[in-house]
Specification:
D-Maltodextrin-Binding Protein, domain 2; single chain; 15 helices
């Protein structure tokens, strides 16, 4: 029985098998162990469209767009509403600006702080000539503390409650921002609380109004000690306006901090990217902070995200420093596959060369089974018919062997095969010669008669 040479596999089939096994292992590792890629869209909750949170979120969105991430900015009533959206399982909000002093780490156990971004002073403006330096003096006053869901209302209620004032006994208004400032100027309210930056237009406007005064709390340091989310900040004389000397003397205010808060399900790669963007926006500081002071892991009232902690300790991930975000993220996620890849490749690379050698030699050696079968039959004895059939068989084998494709480095084995084929053929021919001596000349197709003598035709 002859073998079809076309069915002999080349050495490349061994390497193909090696590559296929490695690919299968890598695909299995990817499916089982590699985390999903970061989403291309994030929703961030801010505050009113006229507030600083909304303005900073727009800056974030522009910077993230260059990294291939879409940041959807969602306007809200403020920090309290932002927290509710973050904790709502049906909400798609995963990041939000939140004022410190609003979140309760026990109730917000699914949330983590990414960083504090800047200080937001608490401005308490009032009408009248009688000075106010204690919150206990605000009893029976018409006070604007902001709408439900705002950070201003949240911190105002905590401080007023600590001074014996409550919503049942005092008149609180939900006005905030420009509306509260205008109502205060018109005399519709007596006191207004604002949590805003020093660049807020309505704050600077009220500071210039001779009928409006800023409460300077004598217990600023006491508030800082009792409410850990607050810090006492000094505004030096003339800091806000040198020409008009505003303020006219140094004042001390208490200030919560604006923080970036995220749900724990936020993809880790996005944490470092958000902090990278926040650094670009806030690292220059403002009138109340030094260059490089923010973003900061301090002044937060929620547990710090582990990825954020690594960012502040070591800086941005190495890959993100030199590569686009999508490429750095992909390589970072695939690093877990290095170990299984090495474990697969090392034994396979050792096995592959012997397999290639075996596969190449197999092309040659598998013909020896045919030669051995014919050789054994020739030893045991053949009839003329069997010898003639074997000779034809050997002729076909020789034609097939001539077409074997083997590398030059294996030519020794190849030509040994051809020598051995000739050896077996010579044995068969010797049988034919011996048998032909007892038959009539020309009685076998392998012989012809020349001058009355039988000779081998091939």
């Amino acid at each position: 029985m002859t073998r079809n040479v076309a069915r002999n596999r080349s050495p490349f089939s061994i390497w193909l098998a090696v590559i296929s096994l490695c690919t299968a292992g890598l695909v299995g590792t990817y499916v089982l162990f590699v985390e999903a890629p970061p989403p291309r869209r994030i929703v961030i909750a801010t505050g009113g469209k006229d507030g600083a949170y909304y303005r900073f979120a727009q800056l974030y969105a522009n910077l993230l767009k260059s990294e291939g991430i879409t940041l959807e900015v969602r306007s809200t009533q403020g920090s309290v509403e932002n927290l509710k959206l973050l904790m709502d399982d049906d909400s798609d909000v995963r990041v939000a600006f939140v004022q410190t002093g609003i979140a309760n780490s026990e109730q917000c156990d699914s949330l983590e702080a990414l960083a504090s971004l800047y200080r937001e002073p608490l401005w308490i403006f009032y009408r009248g000539s009688k000075g106010i330096d204690r919150l206990t003096q605000l009893k029976q006053q018409r006070i604007a503390i902001g709408p439900e869901g705002s950070g201003t209302r949240g911190i105002a209620l905590q401080l007023l409650k600590a001074n014996g004032l409550g919503e049942k006994d005092d008149e609180f208004s939900a006005l905030a921002g420009n509306l509260a400032a205008e109502a205060l100027e018109r005399g519709e309210i007596d006191v207004a609380f604002f949590v805003a930056g020093v660049d807020a237009k309505y704050v600077r406007k009220l500071l210039r109004d001779p009928e409006i005064h800023l409460a300077e709390l004598t217990h600023a340091e006491a508030y800082e000690r009792q409410f850990r989310f607050l810090s006492a900040v000094k505004i030096d004389e003339g800091l806000l306006d040198l020409q008009q000397n505003i303020p006219s003397h140094q004042i001390v205010l208490i200030a919560p901090a604006a923080t970036l808060v995220a749900h724990r399900s936020l993809h880790p790669a996005l944490v470092s990217l958000l902090l990278k963007v926040a650094t670009k926006v806030h690292q220059q500081g403002d009138l109340l902070s030094n260059v490089g002071e923010f973003p900061s892991p301090k002044l937060t009232d929620l547990p710090l995200n582990p990825e954020a902690e690594r960012y502040f300790r070591s800086g941005p991930p190495v890959l993100q420093r030199f590569m686009p975000f999508w490429l750095a993220s992909m390589l970072d996620r695939l690093k877990i596959m290095i170990i299984p890849l090495i474990m697969l490749l090392m034994p396979l690379m050792r096995v592959a060369p012997p397999l290639v050698r075996w596969q190449t030699r197999r092309k040659i050696y598998l013909w020896y089974a045919e030669l051995r079968r014919i050789d054994l039959r020739s030893i045991d004895g053949m009839t003329i018919e069997e010898a003639d059939s074997s000779l034809e068989h050997l002729h076909r084998l020789e034609q097939q062997i001539a077409r074997i494709g083997v590398p030059l480095s294996y030519m020794e084995e190849y030509y040994n095969l051809r020598l051995h084929l000739n050896l077996v053929r010579s044995r068969v021919l010797s049988i034919l010669r011996g048998e032909a001596g007892h038959s009539q000349p020309g009685s076998h197709p392998g012989f012809r008669t020349e001058g009355g003598e039988s000779t081998l035709a091939r």
